[in-house]
Specification:
By secondary structure, the chain is mostly helical. It is rod-shaped and about 80 Å long. Helices cover 84% and strands 0% of the residues.
Length: 106
């Protein structure tokens, strides 16, 4: 097995763990895993694989890309949820201020 394939397998393993942590909304863990994964990604390109391992390499790369898309989608949804929650908090504060103003005769 070539060094590039071994590194891709490490990237894939980290990516799977990142996706699992993202599904659990453990974003700090995702960030930490990405900081471990990024240097591996940089180190394995350009790929140096024998012809016999090209198909395997391609499959791993496709899975890595799909996992990244999934993680980005989960992050986007979480960001939207946080934004919605913050909007509700803001509305609650506004209602509280209005109630306080009316209640104090102001």
């Amino acid at each position: 097995m070539s060094q590039s394939i071994a590194v891709l397998q490490q990237i894939l393993t980290l990516g799977r763990t990142m996706r699992d942590r993202a599904l659990a909304s453990e974003w700090e863990a995702v960030r930490k895993l990405e900081s471990e994964r990024f240097p591996l990604i940089e180190s394995c390109f350009p790929l140096d694989v024998p012809t016999s391992e090209v198909a395997s390499c391609r499959t791993m790369l496709e899975e890595i890309v799909e996992m990244d898309k999934s993680i980005l989608s989960l992050a986007s949804a979480a960001r939207q949820d946080i934004g919605d929650h913050l909007d509700k908090l803001q509305l609650g504060r506004q209602a509280n201020r209005a109630y306080t103003t009316v209640g104090s005769g102001g």
